[in-house]
């Protein structure tokens, strides 16, 4: 099976977690920082925020696709991704908690949608087996 590239987003970072990152087309340009005592300097963001934003948007599209396939109302659904930087004896890693809020669905329907979307979403496919991803329904 041959894959067809639909879009490529390109970004360059300089200065690591205390530097700057921007996309080649200028659509994203951010100063990066590392929170101190849980507080991030105003006007800065983290790689975890950027990852969470992308994952939430991508997963939201998967929720919409699954809703359409299953003829379920996901029009008011929202996806929240909490991406955590973790440190252990073996080094740094990421963990994700993915929460689906779908007011028009029962808890069972929302659970069915989140699980199916997790199989479909490209971010979920990329992270599967690499980082812990917790699924939750609100």
TrEMBL record:
Residues that span the membrane, as ranges: none
Recorded superkingdom: Bacteria
Biological process annotations from GO: response to oxidative stress
Residue ranges of the region described as Disordered: 1-30
Pfam families per UniProt: OsmC
Biased composition (Low complexity): 1-14
Recorded family membership: Belongs to the OsmC/Ohr family.
Protein name: Organic hydroperoxide resistance protein
Biological source species: Ancylobacter defluvii
